[in-house]
Design goal:
Phage tail protein beta-alpha-beta fold, 4-stranded mixed beta sheet, DUF5047, DUF5047 domain-containing protein
């Protein structure tokens, strides 16, 4: 969960005023207070998903502010129009308005404008679909296959892949030792920039995504055990408004086998990691049966790297197949992979949809947390 004050969290459990703000940025910026042109928010939401290629997407309805507090947003009349889909981004925040007139904001990130639509032209509201900065990485495929030197560090390689698309991007690592380690072998990549970047960070046992402040973050996935960061409960001071649940085994695996590519002088490397938690209904060796996933990357050069990559991929499946969908009073600080408590059960957030309207609930899709116990396996 993003850092917010204790007053913020306690205020959410009582009667309070919600606030929302959107600014259109015409230049690439980083941070939680960019320069931009504020536009009205009539409705919308921000959806973030831990397993999606593009982690966060924005749906925003703008136009004429009924209160007249913010100048009306206008349909783009030419390529330089503020809402034209040619590179401008929308920075979005939501938060709490306190009784003393102050506000505490939570930023949701920078979103590239993709599709403005106006069903009732020329004066009706404008619906905008926008995506976080990973969309630019996905779009920015190599013109020809690339070869990366063995002497490059992992940090240099990530920087090259990112800054060729976003020259002013800020990149943050949780481990500078890993960042400054050399790749150790020449790697050839096809035309897919995004897949090359994801293969690289996965081979290091990490994930890469665009954070709420516009920074590209490379980090070890958060632990799925520990103290829940938020409680979704009913009753006195509760926030839960609706609950549904489902169980499925489709798309679930309980062991991941990761391998590297052999060379003329070295044998192939590999590692396998399985769900071994005794309380997990999908545990490897249990009645669920073995369901492996296989992953290969040219960046995997040691057995230890293979194991790290396998563990990252397996974590995305731990806790399935029991999932819960709930609606609640919005907590805009929640993020994918947060550990929360729903009633008496601990759950991990897979998808969170944060509303940009005061009368709409937050929607959360989770998977039940059975414990984090993984281990190496062999045939």
């Amino acid at each position: 969960m993003r850092p917010v004050s204790a007053a913020f969290l306690s205020t959410l459990r009582g009667s309070h005023g919600a606030c929302f703000r959107a600014r259109v940025c015409t230049s690439f910026q980083t941070g939680n207070d960019p320069d931009g042109v504020e536009i009205p928010i009539l409705d919308g939401n921000v959806q973030a998903a831990s397993t999606a290629n593009i982690r966060a997407t924005l749906n925003l309805t703008t136009g004429r502010d009924p209160q007249g507090a913010v100048p009306a947003a206008e349909w783009p009349r030419n390529a330089s129009g503020l809402l034209a889909p040619y590179g401008n981004e929308i920075f979005v925040e939501s938060g709490v308005a306190y009784g003393n007139g102050s506000h505490e904001w939570v930023s949701h990130g920078y979103f590239r404008i993709n599709n403005p639509e106006q069903d009732d032209a020329p004066t009706g509201p404008i619906d905008i679909t926008a995506t976080d900065r990973m969309a630019g990485i996905i779009d920015g495929r190599f013109l020809t296959p690339r070869q990366f030197a063995s002497t490059m560090t992992f940090g240099q390689l990530v920087a090259q892949l990112v800054t060729e698309v976003y020259p002013l991007a800020t990149i943050s690592w949780d481990d500078t030792g890993v960042r400054d380690t050399t790749v150790g072998r020449t790697v050839t990549a096809d035309r897919d920039r995004y897949q090359t970047l994801m293969d690289l960070v996965t081979s290091l046992g990490k994930v890469g995504y665009w954070r709420y402040d516009g920074v590209f973050r490379v980090e070890t996935p958060p632990a799925i055990s520990g103290t829940p960061s938020w409680e979704v409960n009913s009753g006195r001071n509760g926030v839960l408004t609706k609950l549904s649940r489902s169980i499925t085994r489709e798309g679930i695996y309980n062991v991941v086998v990761a391998s590297g590519e052999a060379t003329d002088t070295t044998p192939p490397v590999w590692g396998a990691v399985a769900d071994l938690s005794p309380s997990s209904p999908t545990r490897y060796g249990g009645p669920f049966g073995p369901v492996p996933r296989f992953y290969t990357s040219p960046f995997l050069t040691t057995n230890d790297q293979c194991r790290l990559a396998a563990e990252v991929l397996l974590r995305k499946s731990l806790g399935l197949p029991y999932s819960v969908n709930c609606e609640a009073v919005p907590n805009p600080a929640l993020e994918p992979d947060d550990l929360i408590r729903i009633g008496t059960e601990r759950h991990i957030i897979d998808v969170v949809t944060i509303p940009l309207h005061p009368r709409s609930p937050i929607t959360i899709t989770t998977r039940k947390q059975y414990g984090e116990q993984t281990g190496d396996v062999t045939e």
